[in-house]
Design brief:
Shape: globular
Mean pLDDT: 93
Number of helices: 3
């Protein structure tokens, strides 16, 4: 039986190997798969908490979370991904549950995300509401969404 191992670490707590694997998977998904050349490394990783799941030592789900006042006035979740090895297993839902739980432990009650438009209903299922129209971000339709307290 495969077991997921979840971690939530600061930039300083990440091993060099995990940081390398995270960056590799982010480039694989957001730059290569989505054919979207953009500056993936954005000087925000140092301020983020990095949430990831490994299955048999391989990253299968990842996101980074920020406390309020770092990216937006609200807390935020970003770089949400499930690798090809982890898809169609419900890991995206588990990842969001873990990220929201971690933010709750930090007493963060309002969370803002910049979501790819095709995932709108996925995020709505977690209580996020659209607060913008769909707009283009690096050639991909996005919208801003906020999850309010309660």
């Amino acid at each position: 039986m495969n077991q997921l191992k979840w971690t939530c670490q600061t930039f300083e707590e990440l091993s060099k190997e995990d940081l390398y694997l995270i960056l590799m998977e982010r480039v694989n998904v957001f730059v290569v798969e989505q054919t979207c050349p953009y500056p993936e490394i954005d000087h925000r990783d140092q301020q983020a908490l990095h949430v990831m799941a490994k299955e048999n030592g391989v990253i299968v789900a990842y996101c980074r979370i920020f406390r309020s006042g770092i990216v937006y006035k609200e807390a935020s979740i970003g770089r949400v991904l499930v690798t090809q090895a982890g898809r169609k297993k419900g890991y995206g839902k588990l990842l969001l549950h873990v990220a929201l739980e971690k933010l709750g432990e930090l007493n963060e009650t309002r969370i803002k995300i910049q979501a790819q438009a095709y995932l709108r209903s996925f995020y709505e299922s977690f209580g996020f509401e659209a607060v913008s129209e769909v707009y283009d971000e690096d050639g991909i339709p996005h919208l801003d969404m906020v999850k309010k307290e309660g």
